Task: structure prediction
Amino acid sequence: MVEEFDSSRVICHLDALLTQRELSLTELSKRVGVTLANLSVLKNNRAKAVRYSTLIALCEVLDCQPGDLFTVERRPG
Result:
């Protein structure tokens, strides 16, 4: 997810986590119970929001913490 604000943006690292765990987006969709389309939006940094229930499910399936999924990148300035 890349949600832009004046001085920073949120970046989703779902693609990297999937690669590290050798897991496809389709398989993740089945395990998490979120549509492939919605996960694709998240993976491609086009999401505007994430439900806590989705975040918890992703963390459980991927065995990670929210900070592994998202980072905030500050803009120079």
About this structure: The chain has a mean pLDDT of 91.
